[in-house]
Every structure is written in C-alpha cells, then in structure tokens.
Amino acid sequence: MSQILIIDDERAIRKTLGEILSYEGYKVEEASDGEEGLKKFKEKNFDVVLCDIKMPKLDGIEFLDKAREANPDIPIIMISGHGTIETAVEAVKKGAFDYISKPPDLNRLLITLRNAMDKTSLVTETKVLKRKVGKVQEMIGNSPAIQRIKDTIEKVAPTDARVLITGENGVGKELVARWLHEKSNRSSGPLVEVNCAAIPGELIESELFGHEKGSFTSAIKQRIGKFEQASGGTLFLDEIGDMSLSAQAKVLRALQEGKITRVGGDKEISVDVRVVAATNKDLLKEVEEKNFRLDLYHRLSVILIHVPSLNDRRDDIPLLVDKFLENICIEYGIAKKEIEADALEALRDYNWTGNIRELRNVVERLVILSGKTIVKEDVVNNVVPRN
Ligand SMILES: Nc1ncnc2c1ncn2[C@@H]1O[C@H](COP(=O)(O)OP(=O)(O)OP(=O)(O)O)[C@@H](O)[C@H]1O
Ligand SMILES: [Mg+2]
C-alpha cells in the first residue's frame, strides 16, 4: 500500500484529503505544520508528500528544501491556496513534483498523485539498474598469475599510486583497471575512460584537457576535458602507447603538477585524479624508438601489472569456459549447456591469440551451434585450429 504524508495547518483540508485518499486505498499520515511534517518525513519512507505552502513554524518552501536535502527521490506535491500560486510555481522550479490548488479538485489530485508514484518507481528502477550495470565483472581464474594480480589490486587499489597495466589484446587489462577503481577509496567517484588510440591526434588534447570556446575552428562551445571529469575518481588512459608526443608532454605536466589548462585557456585548474594506464605495446621499446617519453613512462609505471596471455595460463581455461557457458546461456534464456571433457581439452590446447575475448566469443559460438552438450566434434568443426 502506498503511503502518503499530508502536511497542512488546516484541519479541514487534512480531513478531506485524508478521507479521499484512504478511500482510494492509500495509507495516509498527517502533520499540522512543516516541522512536524519534516520529522515524520525523516522517520518513514513515504511514497508521496502533499504539502501546504503557508504554515506556521516551517513553511512549505522551507520544508521542501529540507526534505529534498534529506531524500531528493520522494516526490513532493505543493498545495497552494489563494495568493500562493506564484510561490507554488517557484516551488516546482526548486524541485517540487507539481502543485494542486485549494480547494483540491479530486481528479486532478489523483492524477497528480499517480504520476508522482510512477516517477518514484522509475527512480528506484534506474538506481537498481545502475547498481547492476555498475557492478564489475568478476575476475575469473585460479592460476598463480591471476592470484598475484588480484593480490596486487587489493594492495595497490586503496593508494593513489599510478598503475600501468600491460598485456596482449583481450587479456583483461580493462577489467584490472575497473577493479582498481572499484576497490579504491575513489569508487564513489567517477571512472573515466579515454581510448587514446581511438581519438585523432589533433583532438586528443581537447579531449583530455577540454577547451575554451573559440580556441579552434570547431570549438563552438566550452568543453570540460576528461581530466576534469575524472576529478575525485580515476582516469583510465587506455592504449596509452598510441598517444601523440605532444599530448604526452601535456599529460606529463598534468601528472607532475596536478594541474591542467584547457586548450585556448590560461587558467590553471587543479585536478584530483588517480591515473591508471594500459597498453598492449612494449612501452620501453617505444621509448627506444622515440615514440614514447621515458619521463612519462616512469611517472605512469609506479606500479606495473602485467596480465599474462591466456596461452600462458591455460589452467584457467576450464573455469573461464564454465563461467562463460553459464553467463551466455542465461543471456540466451536457455538451460546451461554442458561440455564434455575432451571438448574442453581441445579448447585448452587451442592457440588463443585473441585471449579471453576470443575465448568468450568461441564459447558463444559453441552455445549457438551445439546441442545440449558440447562435444569434441563441435569444437573441431567450429573452432579453426591455428598453430
Ligand atoms: N579474468 C577474467 N574473467 C572473466 N572475464 C574476463 C577476464 N579477463 C577478461 N575478461 C573479459 O574478456 C573481455 C576482454 O577483456 P578486456 O577488455 O579487459 O581486455 P583488454 O586487455 O583491455 O583488451 P584490449 O587490449 O583489446 O583492449 C572482456 O569482456 C572481459 O570482461
Ligand atoms: Mg582494453
């Protein structure tokens, strides 16, 4: 049953509204002024609040401010008497859900209430969804290499030390970065990702540091860069080996001084950012070939985490296959398929140049193409050997 709080100093109004709403099947509580209303609001989780504007002690607007501070997700509908319509409109601008006028029109009241409740359920749904989506995928594997990586994450995540993650394509570098953020003291802050390889060289600086309006031809609006967006959180510089030398120089300065300047701007802006970088290149080789700055390499690699190729930790393959089978079958809405031992053996022996990403794709293909149980023949027929 939905619970509604009615706050009004006029007993007659409380009585009328209370009766109507109880009759409509809502559970109603009353308060006779803003102060009492706020107390009840904080004690209980109401679905909607109806609140008068002119009241002794705490008036409607003050109530609105305080209530939204305490819980911004609960819709508040203002009840406006003669001469308070303007205030009611003001209240809506300040975050009230809507207002109704005195004497309340029954239909209008019920429709407004229903809309307000729809909004509450929407807000909670979005929150649950965000939590689900936000949850970081488990890092599967028992091999000593994965154990070591997990230990390092536990130790390093809560510090602000910069981490450089290396490893081939699809080994799980991004996953490591996500866990570093998740287990850090910054996990309530943002995790902002920049794929340095995907951004054209001439745009990377504006992407990272932002720009002021008019600083170059296409800069029609001011733009906040990723460093600023990540403030209070983690900035993940993916594919850092592909960053241009001039952008590298600016990143170096940002790391050294904790300050950035927007492109075309002159103001220095302090940023509180923990930087995690990843690359599939051999950065020291890039340094030798003068494609990467050695000073930046040292700044970034305070902690080094190398994620080994799947071919070097084949013992993890059965666990990974099992988990992927489970997840993929759930995605497809079918019962989990089994895999025979020799089929699994064939997967263990395969040459995984695309690492975990490729393994996941192969398992998905097998789920689609095989019967209830995946047999060796499925693997032989559907996974092209490569040696
Ligand atoms: N240990 C693991 N357990 C489960 N899933 C994993 C694991 N490692 C990686 N994955 C999954 O494999 C896929 C590839 O991982 P990820 O994107 O982190 O790799 P990457 O090293 O960043 O790849 P690239 O170099 O291509 O950017 C993702 O879907 C990721 O969730
Ligand atoms: Mg990646």
Give the structure's gist in a few sentences.
α13 packs across α15. This protein has 16 helices and 16 strands.
Structure description:
The chain has 387 residues and is of the alpha/beta class. Helix content is 47%, strand content 16%. It has 16 helices and 16 strands. A five-stranded parallel β-sheet has the order 2-1-3-4-5, with helices on both faces. A five-stranded parallel β-sheet has the order 7-10-13-6-14. α3 links the parallel β3 and β4. α2 runs parallel beside α3 and α13 packs across α15. The protein is flat. The mean pLDDT is 89. The chain binds adenosine-5'-triphosphate (ATP) and magnesium ion. Magnesium ion binds next to α7.
- The proportion of strand residues reads 15-25%
Q: How much is the average pLDDT? A: 89
Bound molecules: adenosine-5'-triphosphate, magnesium ion
The number of helical segments is 16
Spans of 5+ residues with little confidence (pLDDT < 50)?
none
User: What profile does the largest beta sheet have?
Assistant: 5 strands, parallel
- Overall shape: it is flat
How many β strands by DSSP?
16
Q: What percentage of residues falls in helices of 4 or more residues?
A: 40-55%
Q: Report, as a whole number of angstroms, the end-to-end distance.
A: 65 Å
